[in-house]
Amino acid sequence: MPAVDVQEIRRIFTPRKREPVVALDGVSLAIPAGEVHGLLGPNGAGKTTLVKILSTVLLPSGGRAFVGGHDVVTETEAVRPLIGIVFGGERGLYTRLSARQNLEYWGALYRLSGAQIKQRSAELLERVGLTERADQRVEEFSRGMKQRLHLARGLMGDARVLFLDEPTTGMDPLAAREFRALINQLKGEGRTILLTTHDMVEAETVCDRVTLIDRGRILATETPRSLGSLISRFQRIDVEDAPREVLEAIRAIDGVSSVTTLEDGTVRIEVHEEGATTLVLKELVDVGVTAVKTSLPSLEEVYVQVIGDRGLTV
Amino acid sequence: MRAFLAGAQIQLRFLRAYPDAAIPFFTAPMFSVIFQMVFRHAGREDLTPYAAIAPVFIALWWLALFNSGWTITMERWNGTIEMLVAAPSSFAAVVFGRITTTTLLGVVSFFETWLVARAIFGTKITIYHPWAFYATVFVTLFAMAGTAVAMASLFVLARNAVTFSNSASYPFYVLGGILVPVSFLPHWIRPVSAVVFLSWSADLMRAALQAAPMHEFGFRLAMVAVLGAAGLLVGLYAMRVILTRVRGTGELGTT
Amino acid sequence: MSALVSNARVSWYAIVSGANDYWAIFTLKSWVFGWCVRMLSQVSFFALIGKLLESDKQTQFFLVGNAVMIAAMGATFAMNMTTSERGNGTLSLLLASPSRPVLVFASRGVYVMADGVFSALLGLFILGPAFGLHFPFPRILLVIPLTALVGMSAYCFSTFLAGVIIRKREVTGLLVNATIVILMTLCGINVPVSFYPGWLAWISRCLPITNGLEAIRDVIAGAPASTIAAHVGAELLVMSGWLALALVTFGAFVRAGQRDGSLEYAA
Questions:
Q1: What is the ipTM of this complex?
Q2: Number of domains composing chain A
């Protein structure tokens, strides 16, 4: 039985005086116990909506979802003790209270005994590296510290299933790295983690599998390796001052999808095969062209290519 | 039960962290001084019971309006309301714990008021009908908490909650006859006063502090209880509406 | 001269921005049904004591005193607006500008004070007749400028206090309410100044409102012009005193806050 089982979940929002918005359009997903699963997509893709539904905070418009085998709509009392939420951001903490007081409050709401509360909050503060600041007011914390406190808060109930919604957004790279190390530790403890992000690097480094989602629809579920190779297949090379003959030769290379001249005179070469990049670069270097820049396409552009490609190969 | 206590504990912590919460505990004794002065100057020492209980009602009502009333709304603005919904504990129990704590603290204003009267003016306040008095206090606190639950829930749903809470102090002091009994108000206002539990409460408390025998105690006390219970029921119902909205529409739909 | 003009311009813009902020909070409907109802209830609450005491003279005493108090309340609420600068994060911008902060602060709340004065007069002229009181006309019109004087006096006092707490913004609500209730107790609003023991009467006369209110009561009672003038003079003196104190200390408080970093919190 998967830890998280999503079956054709739909969610439509009808804001006042505006058109209805389909946030989730028949999403299905199964996450086995102990997996770290990434939900990767641009802003507005529906990631947060799905997480809210799974954490019983939002009702779906259609479909069913189960956490730990319990229906999130009809069996909320069974689901809630199992889950931990890390919504993140600036809000969601009692800023005038200390870190420790915040944790103790949620511990009580997760039905821990007095002794458990004290012990667990101390442990978690230690774990996320906030012991020294435990009794300072949260309003004095930096963004990274607040995020770590959010994680500690989500763990107070010793959740078996954790939902992390864009937990490293706004963190500096060092803090984000430490945070990811923490996530790896949690995985080592056998917890199931659903992590939403729009950062491909994050998805790659932390997750066992990654689901690509956009506009309420799941595009595919991949392992990061496949994702990595997927992305690196679609590289682009921007060149300046390349002679016409070289560009013609490049156009003929297998794996080059297009050679277009941009407005500012730069030529953009797009490839869709691994290895094609090397060939292209070789051509350019051979004729002494050095004003070369390679980059990866954005997630959206990958999707466009992917959808145009009619599906992915796993 | 644990949720109730968790709510109570965090409310106490909030009290320390937010100085505004202390306002009624400062204003109550000051009002006591004002009213005592007034009656002394007028040579009406017999009215000291009036001066003794009005500040308490002011404090309790303030707590209901400004502390309790904003409980749920503050959670919303703080971004913690969804987490509260997702936690295993009962939302209503947590809120009730917080409101009850706030209301019980209002009892402190009793002591402040009477202490001030005694210390500055040498006024002695005699409780002529102790059982009646304590019963009234008890039921009044219950009614106050019930009304506060109604405020907490309705403030989330109502669009002009801020305006209402800022201006709902003195109008209710007048309607509730907390200093000057309702019998001094014009006839056409009295029916409105009858549905404000404060008017029944204040009358009873004043009567308990005076030598004359008390009339219809049971009925009047029941009115306080009934009106308070009505507030509680409205509040609980409104809370259900709030939770449905949070889960159903994903937003509370008000500014 | 140009310094005066530029200072005046700063003030004007601050007044206008304060007014805009104010109307962002209040609509006409909420002003009438919210604030106005509350204000009339407040004055009535105290005026009714006169009914309890079965004395028209007392009713008038309470009514006039508490109506004038409304003007002072408006002035005290203005403290909220000024200290909200810190909350809005606009304080550091303000301090970095060439203008003197006290000027901006003092001007931002003027609108609230003016609202208080207007409300006070409204209360007086609506509730007076409602409680069966007859005010001597046209003498009663003198009350209008006198109430404005009381408002301004209270405003200078409140500006000074705003400086005192600029570093501890979370205490604002407490201080506003404490100030209001202390003024209600000590300024001869509900009991005459003669009721206070000597030392307290002295303190009372150094506070805003007290002398101005006595002038207002004098006007209604038909006291001789010299008595009225004496009280007005006293109120002007008190107002100047608090204003001077505010001008002198505000800058110092701000500088202290800059030194210890307590102005930074957007709490």
A1: 0.91
A2: 2
